Amino acid sequence: MEERFAETVYATLDLDETLRTDLLDLGDAPPMAIILLVDSDLAHMTKLASALRECGHRVITPTTTDVAAMAFHRVAADLAIVELSHVNDDRWRELRRICQLQTEDGLPIPVVCCSRVYHGPRFELDIERLGARFVYER
Fold this sequence. Notes:
Layout: H1 2-13, H2 17-24, E1 34-38, H3 42-54, E2 58-60, H4 64-70, E3 79-83, H5 89-99, E4 111-115, H6 121-129, E5 133-136
Parallel strand pairs: 1-2, 1-3, 3-4, 4-5
Helix pairs in contact: 1-2
């Protein structure tokens, strides 16, 4: 049943092959949580995704195009993590879209933003105004 749902999501959103693989590779046990991970640093994203998967979570790593497509659909995710160390106008637009995503039940998806670079208190406040939470990572 979950495979059919994943196929439907893939067909509806026309998502890339990486995301399709993450959705369809459900394994034997259901995941603890489905996490949408948005990170422009490939090495960082790979490391974080691996750690989350080791803890039993399903990790979805969409491209920018996928995030734009998801803005108009409900997604099967329990949490979104957005890495903002190298933030620019495109990343802010992407974050706004992500903060508007809803679960299948119509509830907002919790969003946690992280950064390895200090951006100041105004940056943190702007993120929280969007409804997301912010943490610095080491």
